[in-house]
Amino acid sequence: MAFADDFVLLEEEERRVPNTLAAVEGFFRARGMEVNPRKSVGLCVRGYEGRSIPRVQPVFRIGGQWIRPIKAMDSFRYLGHQVGSFGVKRPNLYALQMMLERVHRAPLKPDQKLSVLRQYLIPRLLYGFQNPGVTGGLLTAADRLIKRFVKRVLHFNIHTPDAVIHAAARYGGLGVYCLRSGVPFTFYRRLDRLGREGDPVIRAVMASPRVARLVSRIRQLAGDVPPDQVWKERLHAGQMTAGLRSASGDPASSAWLRARPHGWSGRDFVRAVQLRTENLPVVGVPYNPQPARQCRGCHQRIESLSHVLQGCPVTHGMRIRRHDEICRKVARHVAASGMAVEWEPHVRARDGALYKPDLVIHTEGVILVVDVQVSWESVNRTMSEVWDLKRRVYDQQNFREAAARRWPGGCFRFCPLILGARGFWPRCNQVTEDLLRIPGHLKASCVNSVLKWGSSLHSAFMRTVWA
Ligand SMILES: [Zn+2]
């Protein structure tokens, strides 16, 4: 059985091995290759009273040198698995624990540690865990080690739901692979595909009771729903995270998770992740007793993260600056693409009402009325509803009349721009995006601004209430 430069030689009887080895050596020598005796092992098992007993003395030679025998407690590495005298060994968590510890102690920034985990460490485990000895308990224990690592690196609260860590970034999670749900699913698919192969030997092996038992066990471990879907549903069903349902989707919302934005420190990254996952400390959380949840800034409402960032009078001034920064970014882009921009024009209606849209943009006979809003991702109101409410502020008779007097002959389009306060660029912006020709990097830049401002708003709030 050969796979690239790894190969296994099987013989029924010990006495035939030297001849076969000599033939193999001859085969390779004729092709300018050699078998390395130091990298070879011999496993020779004898049956004794119904038990198999491996030999402890070296019995085989390659190129005149003895090769190491595999004893009862020994094992060797073949195609990524540890193999001993009883077959493939069950993976153990010691190596994972060591690797996580080493990454944690390495002089890396938190986002780099997270990248190492996601892109190198976990992928390295996947093959070894697709092993006949794997169990649900083992995978769960491995996940527990990984979650503990993530929580340490990002300074998460212990109550942080697993879905936040495991759900894909496009749904609002951190996209850390879950071994318990992922490995059996992949393993089962591989076994299933093998079972459909035309090769008669593989078909016979797959039909053997031992393999059939393994396949049915792995199938049970895997369940029916793809892991990606499982975690998405859990995230969107969670009490703290349900609001992400209408916000997730655009890749701009998670670009910063893959690569720390220019100018961000490691701490900025951690604070942004904490904002996204509601890990920034506030007292208005379910595990605090009711009286202790009151806002320490205004004493009016429950001190939830959405109140601190979106409603509390203490942070009002910074909220305006957050909003203005997004407007400036969009205005700069629009002006650079050759459209004329009016910044906060005042439009007075006949009934005295004053309208101040953020930007009014003139382009090819069309006048775009743009209003920017940073909104909390909530279950009570989807982002599309927020978008539509904002549109209706301007898309109505009173404003249309006033605007027609201000810009005679203009054809108006009303396009709000909504950003999720936890750094999301929602899908409902599509109309606006198309009209303003907003590129991906501008979306990401707006998202990053919201995250950075969210973190600053929270810090400012904490400074005020502590003072
Ligand atoms: Zn308050």
Brief summary:
It comes from Zophobas morio. With 467 residues, this protein is of the alpha+beta class.
Explain what the structure shows.
It is a single chain. With 467 residues, this protein is α+β, with helices and mostly antiparallel strands. The chain folds into three domains: 2-88, no CATH class; 94-238, no CATH class; 316-466, Trna Endonuclease, Chain: A, domain 1, CATH 3.40.1350. The protein contains 17 helices and 19 strands. The protein has helices spanning 17-29, 94-105, 110-129, 136-153, 162-166, 179-195, 200-207, 209-222, 227-237, 255-258, 266-276, 305-311, 316-336, 383-394, 397-406, 430-436, 440-466, and strands at residues 2-3, 6-7, 41-42, 45-48, 51-54, 61-62, 65-66, 68-69, 76-78, 81-84, 87-88, 340-343, 347-348, 354-355, 359-363, 366-370, 372-375, 411-414, 417-420. It binds zinc ion. Zinc ion (ZN) binds next to loops. This is Reverse transcriptase domain-containing protein. Residues 1-83 form the Reverse transcriptase domain. InterPro entries: RT_dom.
Topology:
Elements: E1 2-3, E2 6-7, H1 17-29, E3 41-42, E4 45-48, E5 51-54, E6 61-62, E7 65-66, E8 68-69, E9 76-78, E10 81-84, E11 87-88, H2 94-105, H3 110-129, H4 136-153, H5 162-166, H6 179-195, H7 200-207, H8 209-222, H9 227-237, H10 255-258, H11 266-276, H12 305-311, H13 316-336, E12 340-343, E13 347-348, E14 354-355, E15 359-363, E16 366-370, E17 372-375, H14 383-394, H15 397-406, E18 411-414, E19 417-420, H16 430-436, H17 440-466
Parallel strand pairs: 3-8, 16-18, 17-19
Antiparallel strand pairs: 1-2, 4-5, 6-7, 9-10, 10-11, 12-15, 13-14, 15-16
Helix pairs in contact: 2-3, 2-4, 3-4, 6-8, 11-17, 13-17
Zinc ion (ZN) is lined by residues 295, 297-298, 300-301, 307, 312, 314.
